């Protein structure tokens, strides 16, 4: 009888686990940390690249809802101003600065951006650096990808991001605190047919930032690498200097749903929902 009872408890636990996994809004490691802690973000300066659309825009709005001070960067200044105005309309007490930045530019330009970011909000300095900007090209087989596309993608996704980190980290180390949040990709964890260059750039980011974490974690600097699955951000990849179209057919509703929920992704977002018949 006892064995039967324990077996039923074990089966019930498995059912609960599967249900929780199927309906979760993030992985279990994330869920175990509980909801976002306002006290850890309120009043802190958060710098987000790629903030003019997609994940960057939604993150900016969610950080604003937690009372953070924002620095918004991307190449498209007009779109950054739009995001700033929308945030100011919803959260008038939140400070928002627009700082146009092209990660494909030279080191001196990135250094000037870092110095300007550090000077905002009375010289408070950057507490959270969210690396979200990236260039993603249309799917193409690895051997069909022109060398110039390889160079352009790695320059923005890898070299630009690492350069920004290299120039900002000393300021954080001087203060003894800071955090880098890197929006990588599932393509940086496993093969992604048709996305060899993009996948290579994300593998490079994963390797660099995981190593950086091991070197800086005892000095008050945190490093978080986030690897979401496919999502739709825009019909055109903003970071691209060629204006090529990015992928727009995958994960069609995930960002809208995340924005509406003020959270991350769930089972329904992976598999979609059936449209109601009219």
Describe the structure.
This protein is of the alpha/beta class. It has a single domain (36-262), classed as Rossmann fold, CATH 3.40.50. It has 10 helices and 6 strands; from the N terminus they run H-H-H-E-H-E-H-E-H-E-H-E-H-E-H-H. A 6-stranded parallel β-sheet has the order 3-2-1-4-5-6, sandwiched between helices. Strand 5, helix 8 and strand 6 (221-226) form a beta-alpha-beta unit. Helix 6 runs parallel beside helix 7 (147-175) and helix 7 runs parallel beside helix 8 (196-216). The protein is globular.
The average pLDDT score comes to 82
Please provide the count of β strands.
6
Strand order of the largest sheet: 3-2-1-4-5-6
What is the CATH topology classification name?
Answer: Rossmann fold
Envelope shape: globular
Keywords summarizing the entry:
single chain, 278 residues, alpha/beta, Rossmann fold, six-stranded parallel beta sheet, 10 helices, 49% helix, EC 1.1.1.146, oxidoreductase, Short-chain dehydrogenase/reductase SDR protein
What's this model, at a glance?
The protein is α/β, with parallel strands linked by helices. The chain has helices at residues 2-23, 28-32, 38-41, 54-65, 77-90, 107-123, 147-175, 196-216, 254-261, 267-271; strands spanning 45-49, 69-73, 96-98, 128-131, 178-183, 221-226.
């Amino acid at each position: 009888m006892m064995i039967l009872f324990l077996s039923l408890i074990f089966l019930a636990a498995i059912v609960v686990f599967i249900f929780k996994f199927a309906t979760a809004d993030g992985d279990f490691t994330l869920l175990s940390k509980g909801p976002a802690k306002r006290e850890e973000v309120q009043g802190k300066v958060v710098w987000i690249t790629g903030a003019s659309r997609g994940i960057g825009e939604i993150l900016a709005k969610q950080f604003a809802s937690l009372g953070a001070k924002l620095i918004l960067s991307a190449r498209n200044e007009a779109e950054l101003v739009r995001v700033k105005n929308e945030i100011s309309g919803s959260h008038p007490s939140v400070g928002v600065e627009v700082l146009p930045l092209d990660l494909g530019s030279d080191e001196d330009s990135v250094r000037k951006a870092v110095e300007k970011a550090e000077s905002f909000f009375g010289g408070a300095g950057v507490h959270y650096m969210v690396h979200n900007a990236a260039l993603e090209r249309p799917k193409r087989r690895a051997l069909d990808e022109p060398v110039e596309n390889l160079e352009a993608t790695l320059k923005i996704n890898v070299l630009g991001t690492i350069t920004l980190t290299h120039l900002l980290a000393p300021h954080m180390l001087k203060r003894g605190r800071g955090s880098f949040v890197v929006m990588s990709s599932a393509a940086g964890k496993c093969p992604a047919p048709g996305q060899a260059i993009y996948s290579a750039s994300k593998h490079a980011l994963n390797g660099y930032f995981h190593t950086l974490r091991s070197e800086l974690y005892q000095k008050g600097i945190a490093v978080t690498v986030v690897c979401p699955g496919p999502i739709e951000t825009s019909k055109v990849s903003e970071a691209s200097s060629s204006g090529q179209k990015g992928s727009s057919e995958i994960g069609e509703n995930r960002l809208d749903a995340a924005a509406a929920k003020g959270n991350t992704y769930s089972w329904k977002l992976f598999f979609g929902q059936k449209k109601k018949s009219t």
